[in-house]
Amino acid sequence: MTSPRLLSLLAVCCALGSACAKKDPVRAPLVPVTVGTAETRAVPYELAATGTVEPMQTVAIQPQVSGLILRIAFREGQDVKKGQVLFELDPRPFQAALKQAEGLLARDHATATNAEEQAKRYSTLAAKEYVTAEQNDAARSDAAAATATVAASQAAVDQAQLNLQYATIRAPISGRTGSLRVREGNLVRSTDTSPLVTINQIQPILVRFAVPASNLGSIQKYRNDRIAVLASPTGGGSGSEGMLAFVDNAVDTTTGTIMLKGSFPNTDGVLWPGEFVNVRLRLYVDQNALVVPASAVVSGQQGSIVFVIQPDSSAATRKVKVERTAGDMSIVSGEIKPGDRVVTDGQLRLRQGAKVQIKARSDSARAQTGAS
What is residue 50's predicted lDDT score, i.e. its pLDDT? Predict the structure, then answer.
């Protein structure tokens, strides 16, 4: 006969067994994601290129007369101003030549004055037939020849003065000097082909770059609005802003590009001749562009989509069209509006209607750092 206590234990076991037989429904795990926000902002339309910095002007300083260098009035790599003295040659040979030319000019002036007086006297005597017409003509010819000699002597004086001026070599432009090819005491000649020094004008300075010729119409359209050009060193660093200064008059048929030049004040000296730089040609600014982080856009067989987080923390797909990219942002249009939260990381585990858990940016940053 079964005891009451045994019956109670059997009842409890049956109750527990039936409870264990009923399983709770399995819930799908939350998908961790990182989100950004769709918004409207002013976004510039820019063309990217690689450019080369070149000086606004380059002058190779060469002597115009031969002589011994007495003094070099600047240091290598120094900034110089237009008209500043660079070299001084020994002026004594040119001073002597000038004095000699001035003496010859004075002599020829005296001869010409005497010839003119003689011609006047002969003209008076010829009127009274005291001298022959041939004698009168000869006197007039002598006076004309003496006048021509004076002109030649004056030209010699001018040349001697010019040579004396050339003995002091001045900077024809403002800019920065390069390395010196000569030293004090060297003899230089006007026939030398190697320059004494080269001066580059780097304030302002130019950046030469090329863009596809298909953009020529847009460049011409906005050129009257003073198109901005931004340049930054390829290795990183602060950039400079200038203006489009030149558009070539022909397309390079070999590369299919058009060559442009931007002018930069370069007051801080960041841009350096011969340097390669990253260039952005800013044609215009779209004041009301709808943008999302570029990482939010997913490409698929049906086109580009983004995952939008709905109020109930579920994900929904939205079709979008990427108009263009600007840095880490994509300018889009389609089934999205400003203020929508879009998934920027974690899309691979998402599907329509999936519940999500939004990670803090710091969490995702730490996860990426640990993975790397």
Answer: 95
Residue with tokens 């030209």: 155
Which residues 6+ apart lie within 8 Å of 16 measured at CB? none
Which residues are paired to 329 by β-bridges? 293, 326
Count CB atoms within 10 A of the CB of residue 188: 20
Amino acid 159: pLDDT: 96
Contact call for residues 266 and 204 (beta carbons, < 8 A): yes
Q: Do domains 47-56+201-286 and 91-166 have the same CATH topology?
A: no
Q: Give the range among 4-18, 120-134, 250-264, 332-346 with minimum mean pLDDT.
A: 4-18
- Using pLDDT thresholds of 50, 70 and 90, give the confidence band for residue 164: very high
**Average confidence (pLDDT) over 121-142:** 84
Q: What is residue 118's predicted lDDT score, i.e. its pLDDT?
A: 87
What is the DSSP pairing of strand 329-334 with strand 315-326? antiparallel
Distance CA 347, CA 304 (A): 13
Interatomic CA distance for residues 132 and 135, integer angstroms: 5
Q: What would the mean pLDDT of 43-64 be, rounded to a whole number?
A: 94
Name the architecture of domain 91-166.
Answer: Orthogonal Bundle (1.10)
CA angle 307, 312, 313 (to 5 degrees): 45
Strands 228-233 and 315-326: unpaired
CATH class of 67-90+167-194: mainly beta
The total of other beta-carbon atoms located within 10 Å of residue 128's CB is: 7
User: By the 8 A CB rule, do 98 and 161 touch?
Assistant: yes
Class of domain 31-41+288-371: mainly beta
Say which CATH class 47-56+201-286 falls into. mainly beta
Whether 119 has a pLDDT exceeding 90, the answer reads: no
Quick one: how far is CA 228 from the chain centroid? 11
pTM: 0.71
